[in-house]
């Protein structure tokens, strides 16, 4: 009984973005604890930092072209039917779409270049990026880096998405979707880890050793680049297949197109290719959420412009950059708290959390 009484109460720290903006994510002292070394990031920290990246860190033109789904989106899309759902008159694909159709009520995802979908399965976080969902076939064009043409100042465009999501998406703020637990590398998506993507997708197996990326806005030196509709998986565990993820998201896009555009369009595996990116990998069992966040941050700050699959991003960022992220996110939350509340004095030893 004494141990229960001595446990510190859960206190609300920040809401981001703060009022009067809609769709704010509430971060509590309990959420902050998952930033301790060895802990798994919960959905609140994932959603908070993704929203912060889009609103505050992403270049304006990239933010305009991007949409970030809540970590609850894929969970809601793929959950089991409940008793109130009509399982006789409409297909499973239609039922899945109905669960999330309001999430895009105020955004046309087919006008976006990049859709970021955080996924948590079996206590493991990974990232899905849907690229150019509005395109029906690859497009090659002359490459001119827009970096020097970017504007500065003005309101961050990501704030518009925060308003959109507020009225359309269900929120799970303050609740951990998946309890921390050991990551099982043998059971990711219940699919084999031994099949080479080069065999699955017909890519050449004779590839040069990995070097620095040459397909992003800051690294591409090609005269022409190719953008293609595709679904990319960035998973910090060793290679695994996610064919069901590809299938369910293609079906979602098809239903979304039919509802929003009023016409039929096929999102086949040939038209909307699925590919596993070659990305930096985690070296422990607890940092998968940090890698997900770093994938999004690196993509938003230096987006891919040439889509020759699979993307070779093994040296996208150094491992040390991920190791610093727990402290960086904790400091960010506490700095926002100081700004929103004026002081952290009332939280006692909050400044020592995770030390």
From TrEMBL:
InterPro entries: Papain-like_cys_pep_sf, Peptidase_C48_C, Sentrin-specific_protease
Residue ranges, annotated region (Disordered): 142-189
GO molecular function terms attached to this record: SUMO-specific endopeptidase activity
A cellular-component GO term for this protein: nucleus
Protein name per Swiss-Prot or TrEMBL: Ubiquitin-like protease family profile domain-containing protein
One Pfam match: Peptidase_C48
UniProt keywords, alphabetically: Hydrolase, Phosphoprotein, Protease, Ubl conjugation pathway
GO biological process: protein desumoylation; proteolysis
Domain called Ubiquitin-like protease family profile: residue spans: 25-299
Similarity comment: family membership: Belongs to the peptidase C48 family.
